[in-house]
Specification:
CATH architecture: 2-Layer Sandwich
Distance between the termini: 28 Å
Radius of gyration: 12 Å
Largest sheet: 4 strands, mixed
Helix content: 25-40%
CATH superfamily: Shew3726-like
Number of domains: 1
Number of strands: 4
Oligomer: single chain
Shape: globular
């Protein structure tokens, strides 16, 4: 399985963030929910979701990669929610 995160990040519906990737040479949209962005850093004031995504991009893409490797990508899309955050 070959995963390439190619970006760029763009604003999706309901203030979510979409990040483009390729999975085995096919397009894959990684959808990061607004709630995930809020819960990732609750002490940080969330203004622009794209700025907040950029601040935590490596951690968010790592979570997306793990979900992809676990087989959760379907129909060219993967959804990443607050419940996907690792327990601290």
């Amino acid at each position: 399985m070959k995963i390439e995160f190619i970006g760029p990040a763009s604003l999706g519906e309901s203030q979510s963030v979409i990040y483009s990737a390729m999975l085995d040479g096919r397009p894959l949209a990684c959808h990061f929910s607004y709630e995930l962005l809020e819960d990732l850093d609750p002490d940080s004031l969330l203004g622009d979701p794209l700025e907040h995504f950029a601040k935590h991009q490596l951690k968010l893409l790592s979570i997306a990669e793990q979900k992809i490797l676990n087989g959760h990508a379907h129909n060219g899309k993967i959804e990443i929610y607050s419940g996907d955050l690792p327990a601290d």
